[in-house]
Design brief:
Elements (H helix, E strand, L loop, with lengths): L8 H6 L9 H9 L1 E6 L4 E3 L7 E7 L2 E6 L5 E7 L4 E2 L1 H6 L6 E4 L3 E7 H10 L1 H27 L2 H16 L1 E2 L9 E4 L4 H7 L4 H13 L3 E4 L2 E4 L2 H6 L3
Antiparallel strand pairs: 1-8, 2-7, 3-6, 3-8, 4-5, 4-7, 9-10, 10-12, 11-12
Helix pairs in contact: 7-8
Length: 237
């Protein structure tokens, strides 16, 4: 895992969207109440039922938020990457975490203490607005998830996932002269992605196979080539 010295915390915070507009003295106050947390792949950050003492920001790496089940399975709620934050809602409500958090790869987090956040909220209305905007976006995403699971077919969920990653992180293939062909790298294992989409791993594999047979995608391990974004978008409507 790459090394980050403690004295770099102010520089890391200054480049996070939530803290971009803070005055130097405000940033210094936050930094004084921020600690690094390093996790190895598979290491738990907190369990469902633990009490929060602040919230977290991912510097690099990948975190999974999930519900455990009595059958030993899990429901993945979110997969978080660099510059994303989590745990704010539980912190504000002063209630136990409703999920557990696990590192999917080696990860560096910043833990910002609750008291420092409350001090800044009282002093800076713009910071309060940015934090509310972040929580509102997360609520909107949750509503979209419920709508997707309720109204969209299993194939549509997978296509939506592929299109989202193709538009935000895909690499256009120039060799074949087509600007519509995009290759994406799956951000995590197919089992975790299946849980995130409320599917079984077998169903996800079957849908990938069906899309490949239809000439829409090619699967090479974690690399998936979308041959035509527009055709994929129109499939299974």
């Amino acid at each position: 895992m790459p090394k980050h010295d403690t004295h770099e915390i102010p520089q890391i915070l200054a480049h996070l969207p939530l803290f971009l507009e803070l005055a130097p003295e405000q940033l210094s106050h936050i930094a004084e109440n921020t600690r690094e947390k390093r996790l190895q792949k598979g290491e738990m950050l907190f369990q469902k039922g633990d009490m929060p003492r602040g919230f977290y920001v991912v510097v690099f790496g990948q975190m999974k938020l999930a519900f455990p089940s009595s059958q030993g399975n899990e429901k993945v709620i979110n997969i978080l990457g660099s510059r994303q934050s989590f745990g704010e809602a539980a912190m504000f409500m002063d209630r136990p975490y409703p999920v557990y958090a696990e590192a999917l790869i080696d990860t560096l987090l910043l833990h910002i203490a609750r008291n420092a956040v409350f001090d800044l909220l009282a002093a800076d209305a713009s910071f309060a607005r940015r934090m509310l905007a972040g929580l509102s976006m997360r609520l909107h995403a949750l509503v979209q998830d419920v709508e997707s699971y309720s109204l969209r077919s299993t194939t549509q969920r997978v296509i939506g996932f592929l299109l989202q990653h193709g538009e935000t992180g895909g690499q256009t293939n120039q060799n074949n002269g087509s600007s519509n062909e995009v290759t994406i790298a799956l951000p995590t294992s197919k089992q975790v992605i299946a849980s995130r989409l409320s599917l079984t791993p077998e169903t996800l594999s079957r849908i990938f196979h069906d899309l490949a047979n239809s000439g829409l995608i090619t699967v090479h391990g974690k690399d998936i080539t979308i041959h035509d974004m527009a055709r994929l978008r129109q499939f299974d409507l």
